[in-house]
Design brief:
heterodimer, A: alpha/beta, B: alpha+beta, two-stranded antiparallel sheet, elongated
Chain lengths: 230, 406
Amino acid sequence: METIRLVNLCKYYEMGQEEIRALDDINLSIQQNEYVAFMGSSGSGKSTMLNILGCLDRPTSGQYFLNSKDVSSMNADELAEIRNREIGFIFQSFNLLPKLSALANVMQPLIYSGVTLEQRKLRAEQALNQVGLADRLDHVPNQLSGGQRQRVAVARALVTKPSILLADEPTGNLDSRTTAEIMSLFDELHAEGHSIIIVTHEQDIAEHCQRVIRLEDGQIAADDSRQEAA
Amino acid sequence: MFILLESARSAYQSIRAHGFRSILTTISITIGVAAVIALVSIMQGVSVYIEDQLSGLGANGILIQSFTSQSDRLQGRRNKLTVTDYELIARQVDGISSITPILVGTGVNQVQYQGETMAAQVLGSTFNYQNVSLDYINEGRFISDSDNQTRRRVAVIGEDVRLNLSMPDNPVGEFIQIGSEWLRIIGLMEIKGQIFGQSQDNNVIIPFNTMQSIVGNQVEPDVVIQLSVTDINLLDATIDRITFLLRNAHNLIPGDENDFLIQTSEQIAETINSILSVITIALGGVISISLLVGGIGIMNIMLVSVTERTREIGICKAIGAKRQQILLQFLFEAVFQCLLGGVIGLVIGYGLGAVVSVYIGIVEAIVPVWVALLAVSFSALIGIIFGMMPASKAAALDPIEALRFE
């Protein structure tokens, strides 16, 4: 089943007099349970791609279908709901709420989807258990190591049972040992049936994925599928 | 409902996380509300107290005094009520249950006893005084009609006079000196307490005729006439009748101003209460400004807080928070802080009101429930008004920009 379909998708920015074509006429289809890496140098358009795929931003023209729904024409609140239900974000700098415990951080998105307190607690505990942090529920982010923080972030992304996990340089702030840990976590999640999209500039990370899409100057330069990976 | 509850929970957590700052922010509201409550409780206390005190005149009571207008006064004229006026009213007005003339001894106020001297309010009156002023005897007896007729040198004193002159507990039979006259004490009045820190117990009451002879008979004295009517419904009719009689007796032609003033306890209370409400309104204005300043303080802190938490807001938006949810959270934060300030202010205001009431000598400090509710809801309103701008700013943040914010 097709999870993501981009049709003639463009994103332009005005920079003074100049028009920057961050994404230029992209056509793309991503199936359910795919494990995709977007690669490219800075300025290639991969951050813009991530923002649009994550429904944080809207395209200038073209269409974006997420589970066959056209999200490119939705308003801010509708997009917020899509982000809440369909997308699990994982950021390079973790982006946990600093004053909240690991458990509360994972519970947070469920507040926005209207889940009761008891259910939130239960589901957040399960998610933290899944990423191997069952014993760190009450720690606040600065009591956790980088790898642990990213696991909390993964748990937060998983807890709403989204259609895709979107990871932006998920290991950019981690050392090589924790990078390996987090990547094997992603591999497991993929094996469990999750669709995962990783934006990275590191070849090692992209190696884990089945499909590597290279962006250059806002266009798809290469789209390689390698069935043997992952 | 769910959104409200969750926003309230988040707001509460955030206020707790910034405990000290939250308290500082609420202080201005606290002070404003405390001032309102203290003001109201003191003013209410004063007003209740005045009504209590004026009930000394009684609801059926009428007080008649001479009145000299400003222009007459400048021409050196001084209007008077005379004993003749008193007799006229006593004789020709129906429905009077008690009436007495009162002569205040101007220049006669030094009271001596065994070498001690004090200034007291010396009044000349009759037996009826205790009925019209509802002022009764504690020890001994009051002035009798025969005391008056025979100009006996006797006096009834108030508790403060007894204390100041170091008299025995029961001063009956002791002698005091007023001017050059020696008077025997025949009674001690009940304690009445203070009004505005002014003792009501430093009276010396002597027979009216005795007073007249002490003041001297050369000058016609200016008397005050106090009376009570048998039926409160006759009050207005009685006032009209007295006005008619006195105008006739004083040869006033139509168009002339009354040269006397007739007051009832109700009128006196109204006058004092109207002064009190002017004071209350003026102070209330000042306090509203302090609440306004408090509101601006809240807005300021909230704006700082929104900027400081831009990234957090971005995260919340990325994981699915809608504008309304962010808006409500920040609005609740402002409202909670104001409410907290309001409630603390309420408690402090009650305390302050009670302390001041005791200090100025009024017993009861009463704050009506509606004032307390109004003060607290007003502070919540301030939270909504001044929280709205920062909260909308937070809600309107672009998630991508907010996430990029360092």
